[in-house]
Amino acid sequence: MRGHGCASSERFTALITQLQLPELVKVEEISQTIDSETFTVQNCIKFSGPLATTSISTNAKFEIRSPKCVQIKFDEGVIETPQVTDSIVLPKMFELFGQNIDLSPLKGIFSSIENAAALVAKTISGQPPLKILIGTNNAESWLPTTYLDEELMISRGDGSNIIVLFKEGSTLVN
Q: What pTM was computed for the model?
């Protein structure tokens, strides 16, 4: 954003501490790309699981309303075509609803599932992503910036949630 320490296009990585997902699904990356020339923002979450990886993103336009506040209007959501993995890697155990489930007896079944997954991968790999247009006034948000420097942005969403973003390549993130 002009005047806010961002170049024309900056990529930030979010620090997320309370994203609740099943144990078999892992968040690989959460990022936000801000383009101050086109006044657009893309939020993206990349997931991986034992069978596939995919990402979900939202595309939005923003307007600077004050030196410390922007209004975001979401245009579309995008679900990328899942990329099926070559082999299934499952933990020996995982927890579901407070119960430990032992997966080791299922190892023999995995080879036939891998063959079926390879056929599915061939079928869906050429498909375009699923785009969902967001054409409602309810898809707007205000984002007041609490702190901003060359490496870090701290904002508060209109639901009072705190958003901490680190610029890609920041020395603040290990």
A: 0.64
Tell me if residue 15 falls in helix, strand or coil.
Answer: coil
Integer Cα distance of 26 and 121 in angstroms: 20
Report residue 40 as tokens.
């657009």
Spatial CA neighbour of 58 closest among 72, 71, 39, 44: 44
Helix (H, G, I), strand (E, B) or coil at 37: coil
CA 124 to the chain's CA centroid: 21
Contacts of 3 (CB under 8 A, 6+ apart): 64, 67
Q: What is the pLDDT along the chain (174 residues), one digit of tens a residue?
A: 333 334 445 655 554 444 555 566 788 888 888 888 999 999 899 988 777 788 999 999 999 888 888 888 999 999 998 887 666 666 677 777 888 888 777 766 766 776 776 677 677 777 889 899 987 767 788 888 888 888 888 888 777 778 888 888 888 876
User: CA 47, CA 118: separation in Å to the nearest integer?
Assistant: 19
